[in-house]
Amino acid sequence: MGFSEIYSQLPVEALVRQSEDTSAATVDDVLARGSARNLREFAALISPAAQDRLEALAARSQSVTQRHFGKVIRLFAPIYLSNECVNICTYCGFSRNNPIPRITLPVEQVVEEVGKLARQGFRSILVVAGEHPKYVSNGYVEEVVRRCLDTVPGIALELGPLETATYRPMVAAGCESLVVYQETYHKPTYTALHTAGPKKNYEWRMDTPERAYAAGFRRLGIGALFGLHDWRYEALSVAAHARHLLQHCWKAQISISIPRMRPAAGGFQPDPQYFMNDRALVQLIAAFRLLLPHAGIVLSTREHPTLRNGLVRLGVTHMSAGASTEPGGYSSFDETTWTQTKADQPGEQFHIADERSPATIAEMIRAQGYEPVWKDFDQSLVSGKA
């Protein structure tokens, strides 16, 4: 069974209620053990009662992270190929009904921008695009991957969900990782937010990581957009999904992203009712670490610099840096200062909060006694490519 079928049988609402009613003594029992063994114990760690144990929770998370990952943070940058999209999603700047300039980059421009990122130090990129059939059916993505491999050996994709057969040429071209957010696991909210386009298919999207694994991807990334629904509901759902993938896609490394919603084109503003504050974000990262000690935890430039600085030692393993969320955005970056030379970014998906340069981020990581890692994978490690 795919995860969507299993998920439909999970008592997520009941686990949320249990979390809200958790006692301090139950939280202390889990903390004393130093790990969460199941979703019920994870629910205790994200409970209101656990907020009073945040320092102890963070200390446990730090210890577990260092045991399994050492004192390193893997750095990567997103590069947006296209903001063309056939979906209408009320929270996304790329939604097809938003009057933004639509761009799909020529392969040569992608290669130039990746070269620019490489000169900043990056050897790992996340290739992102809106959901549009024209660039997945004609070999465009595969050509981008092949052309960029000489510069950056680690390439991940974040595209609209595809069939396993469509993913296979992308893996053959040299792509190692696929990232797909469910956006929200709460089906009524998902239905209300996705009003047109193939993204309306909730179950199809949920089972994407398993189709990608069957195609040969060696890293799988999942997550939810925190701020679309109750954060504890989303957290429990992501946790259940990650546990399922660790069991059924056991040859792949699993990572979790915890992006909080940002304002976007079209007038979208996050709903205050579902806001996850900074303390809750710290709590959630630590809880994920105690449940999933081997999973990567990704922190994006959606978060403010001060918070990102503070989270380096608490459980995250991957950070984006110096990001642009607009196709062609890096073309306007000054390579010395890594600042944009244009003020307007009308084609961006969302506006980032941490605008520091990659070099500044790397130095911040070193100042905390950690090592910024630009590369942890090489194509020569793949069978037949040595």
Question: Keywords, please?
Answer:
single chain; 386 residues; alpha/beta; TIM Barrel; 11 strands; 38% helix; 13% strand
Helical amount: 25-40%
Specify the oligomeric state. single chain
Order of helices and strands: HHHHHEEHEHEHEHEHHEHEHEHEHE
Give the class from helix and strand content and strand pairing. Answer: alpha/beta
User: Number of folding domains?
Assistant: 1
Count of DSSP H/I helices = 15
| CATH C-level name | Alpha Beta
* Mean pLDDT reading: 93
Per DSSP, what share of the residues sits in E-state strands of 2 or more residues?
5-15%
Sequence stretches where pLDDT stays below 50 over 5 or more residues: none
Shape: globular
Number of E-state strands: 11
| Gross CATH architecture | Alpha-Beta Barrel
Radius of gyration: 20 Å
Side-by-side strand order of the widest sheet: 1-3-4-5-7-8-9-10
CATH H-level superfamily title: Aldolase class I
Largest sheet: 8 strands, parallel, barrel
Look up the CATH topology.
Answer: TIM Barrel
Question: If you had to describe this structure to a student in words, what would you say it looks like?
Answer:
It is a single chain. The protein has 386 residues and is of the alpha/beta class. It has one domain (54-377): Alpha-Beta Barrel (TIM Barrel). The chain has 15 helices and eleven strands. It has helices spanning 3-7, 12-20, 24-33, 39-45, 54-69, 107-119, 140-148, 164-173, 187-193, 202-206, 208-215, 231-248, 278-291, 305-311, 358-367; strands at residues 72-82, 88-89, 124-129, 154-158, 177-179, 194-196, 219-223, 253-257, 296-299, 318-320, 371-373. The strands form two sheets. It has an eight-stranded parallel beta barrel, surrounded by four helices. Helix 2 crosses helix 12. 48% of the residues are buried. The model has no long low-confidence stretch (mean pLDDT 93).
